[in-house]
């Protein structure tokens, strides 16, 4: 996804008039204390939610209820909810370091993690084609040979869709593959998959837009043609979704290694940016880790507020 300079200017203008917060540094806090400090607008469960489920991971606290999937509607960022503070005036405990979100690079060409695929789809503005398969199934083998393994299909898919594939591990040792088996079985239930091969086309917001049950040898033209038509229709829905997110303050952030994430800024505090992704996952990043364009944007915003 790409955002025009005009839209970025519109986003920046929405931040004008935001007052600065001047608070003393808070001492190290327990998970419960950290949970009580989180403003309501940073929690997708609202002010009345149970705030006692933060888990400590290293130096950071992670909300255990956030599963990394787009499960609830995103909300707009009100100007008064974005707080800029002067250097040294910090009181907000860090969420996940953004580098932890980037820690596992995207696999390819077929990804193996739904959460990673969803995040990649949100950044690139593409639908996800999920294939549930089995190494021993003859129809899966035919589908690979006639469609998915063809160079022409691979070239088209690389430009238009995020590919995600899960094999059937139920025949393998549960002591060794138990977690993977449960993970895939839960996804099968979520997407109502009862047999292999089964395909699902999913939008970046987690919505299923098309299903592909089974495969018949020789029908490669029909299978691929239907998939291409569905992807084209999905791209139109994604364009509407992206426009809605832009209105709510979401944008693409890029770090110095050119890795990207879609998120909205909720707070700037002691040279750190606190971001929320569309799925509700919170993260933070030091401004020195941002790419040149984002550092320039942030510098301009700080100048407007007299923070330089």
What keywords describe this structure?
single chain; 308 residues; Glutaredoxin; seven-stranded mixed β-sheet; 36% helix; elongated
Major sheet attributes? 7 strands, mixed
Helix content: 25-40%
> Averaged pLDDT, please?
74
Number of domains: 2
Structural classification: alpha/beta
Radius of gyration: 22 Å
Compressed to H and E, one letter per element, the order equals: HEHEEEEHEHEHHEHEEHEEEEH
Rough shape? Answer: elongated
Number of helices: 9
**Low-confidence spans:** 1-95
- Total number of β-strand segments? 14
- Percentage of β-strand residues: 15-25%
Distance between the termini: 31 Å
Your description of this structure?
- The chain has 308 residues and is α/β, with parallel strands linked by helices.
- It folds into two domains: 5-102 and 255-304, no CATH class; 110-244, Glutaredoxin, CATH 3.40.30.
- It is built from nine helices and 14 strands.
- It is elongated, with a radius of gyration of 22 Å.
- The two termini are 31 Å apart.
- Residues 1-95 have low confidence and may be disordered.
Summarize the structure.
With 308 residues, the chain is an alpha/beta fold. Helix content is 36%, strand content 20%.
Annotate the secondary structure layout.
Elements: H1 5-14, E1 20-21, H2 31-37, E2 54-57, E3 60-63, E4 83-85, E5 96-97, H3 98-101, E6 110-111, H4 114-124, E7 128-132, H5 138-148, H6 151-160, E8 162-166, H7 174-190, E9 198-202, E10 208-213, H8 220-247, E11 250-254, E12 260-269, E13 272-276, E14 282-286, H9 292-304
Parallel strand pairs: 1-4, 4-12, 5-14, 6-8, 7-8
Antiparallel strand pairs: 2-3, 7-9, 9-10, 11-12, 12-13, 13-14
